[in-house]
Amino acid sequence: MKTTGILLTGVGGQGIILISKILTIGLADMGFEVKMSEIHGMSQRGGTVNTQLKYGQRVFSPTIGPGEADMIVSFEKSEALRALPYLKKGGTIVTDEKEIFSMPVLTGNAEYPHRALEALELAGCSVKRVPAAAIAEELGNGKVQNIVLLGALVKALGFSGSADWLAILRSNVPQKLVDINISAYEKGAAL
Which of 5, 17, 57, 174 is the most exposed place for a label (fewest CB within 10 A)? Predict the structure, then answer.
């Protein structure tokens, strides 16, 4: 029985856990067994946040080891590069082009990998670039970057019409933010 593993990665405060929750609900509504695990790390201080999610007919664990992820969804391009060892040969990376500088980069103790996307492509994986942060800013709220990525992810998985994603979204975001989140999802799904 085949299971599909998705690793979502980014920096604390980007809404990774919310889209993991929405994705889990949608996949369960489609009849899949779904398991999800969160790793917060130093999320309160802008550190890495990972969510591991597996779905299929029968799933025993959400844990994704090196070389086991069918897809990596990254909210920041250097995080995609950091997660690369977890991607299966022939896997897909859906990533924002956004750059967020960590404290070591800001203090001059580390160098930011500006060519991270090129490095990913040279590694032989399929890279789908999504300007989610830029789209969110155009919509007037940078915090909906995660929902733009959710729309792009659902489309990349081929599940656009398989669940009522907008209803799931409506029931998981604050009422006053429903409209902008729906716009963000639709923009991502249109990419």
Answer: 174
- The arrangement of strands across the sheet holding 33-39 comes to 33-39, 48-56, 3-11, 69-74, 87-96, 126-130
Superfamily of domain 3-107+116-189: Pyruvate-ferredoxin oxidoreductase, PFOR, domain III (3.40.920.10)
State if pTM tops 0.85: yes
Rounded CA separation 9/72 (Å): 7
pLDDT of residue 49: 81
Token pair in block for residue 51 = 């969510």
Question: How would you class 142 by CB atoms within 10 Å of its CB: exposed for 0-12, middle for 13-18, buried for 19 or more?
Answer: middle
pLDDT, position 43: 44
Question: DSSP readout, 100-148?
Answer: ---HHHHTTSS---TTHHHHHHHTT-EEEEE-HHHHHHHHT-GGGHHHH
Residue 59, SS3?
Answer: coil
CB crowding 82-99: b at 16 or more within 10 Å, else e: bbbebbbeebbbbbbebe
Residue 33: helix, strand or coil by DSSP?
strand
In the chain, what are the domain boundaries? 3-107+116-189
Residues 72 and 65: their CA atoms lie apart, in Å, by 12
